[in-house]
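Hi F.,

I've been meaning to write this up properly since the lab meeting, where we talked about keeping a consistent format for the predictions we share between groups. The idea is simple: the sequence comes first, exactly as it goes in, then the structure tokens exactly as they come out, then a line or two of notes. No screenshots and no reformatting. I'm using this chain as the first example so we have something concrete to point to.
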Amino acid sequence: MTERTIDKRHLPDGPWQQEPDHLAWEHAGYACHLQRHPNLGHLCGYVGLTSSHPYYQKHYDDIEGIQIHGGLTYSDWQHIPVTGLWVLGFDCGHCFDLAPYMLTFKEWRSLQQDVYRDIAYVQAETNSLAEQLRAIEQGAS
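Output, unedited:
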């Protein structure tokens, strides 16, 4: 795994201050990556696909059957520290997800139902996405 950090001085205190901001690893044969949104502070997870995958170069709105937190919200060539991969991803900045920066606004501090999705959660969801994508690729063969 590799790690990098972003400047989090604009974020209030919380577990995100001690977490890494970027992680890269391999799971189910895919390059996986998670990164923190540089402004809002929530985490996003990504899996890189090669041209052999049936979802290669497919827009996330055209992909059905993936069960992931908040659904797929990203498809493009970026966000993986390996070039030449088509990337599918999701984010943890949805309704009832706690984006750390939002705590700087007084009216957001009272929203106790919001949940911060930490590194362990996002890495597990990213691994789940990789496993689902592997099963789809193997079923297409």
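Notes:
The chain is about 20% helix and 25% strand.
The chain has a mean pLDDT of 84.

If this format works for you, I'll send the rest the same way.

G.
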